[in-house]
Amino acid sequence: MKRSLVIALAAAMAIPAVTVPVTTADAQVLTGRNAPRRAPPRPALTEREETRLYEAEDQVFEIDSQLAEIQAAGEAAGGLTPAQQAEIETLTRRRAEAQRTIDRLEAKRNR
């Protein structure tokens, strides 16, 4: 009896352990074990870029309010003066530049 117990114990230790996954979550983890590795995600934005994004957003908001004020003044006066039209063109260009900055940084953040 002792001899058969020793043989059974030796055989059990010599056979490699094979386990069957108990849950589907375990099976998914085991399946993905040899999957190719993806590159680690890139950092979203640096602190400097985030600051620039917030500044550009503030700038667009300020320019929009300035444009609204000039247009309201022009409507009240019955039309825009050449100086107001020139100011609107300047503000529109500045707003477009700030909006390009926002679009570029948001695209980088959302990659």
Question: What's this model, at a glance?
Answer:
With 111 residues, the chain is mainly α. The protein has helices spanning 2-14, 24-31, 47-77, 82-109.
Question: How would you portray this structure in words?
Answer:
The protein is an all-alpha fold and 111 residues long. The protein has 2 domains: 2-34, no CATH class; 47-109. The protein has 4 helices and no strands. The protein has helices spanning 2-14, 24-31, 47-77, 82-109. The model has no long low-confidence stretch (mean pLDDT 83).
Amino- and carboxy-terminal Cα gap: 68 Å
Q: Secondary-structure element sequence?
A: HHHH
Radius of gyration from the CA trace?
A: 34 Å
Largest sheet: none
Number of E-type strands: 0
Which percent band covers the strand fraction? under 5%
Helix content: over 70%
Shape: rod-shaped
The chain-level mean pLDDT equals 83
Number of domains: 2
Name the poorly predicted regions.
none
Helix count equals: 4
Helix vs. strand class: mainly alpha
Which key features would you list for this structure?
single chain, 111 residues, mainly alpha, 2 domains
Topology of helices and strands:
Elements: H1 2-14, H2 24-31, H3 47-77, H4 82-109
Helix pairs in contact: 3-4
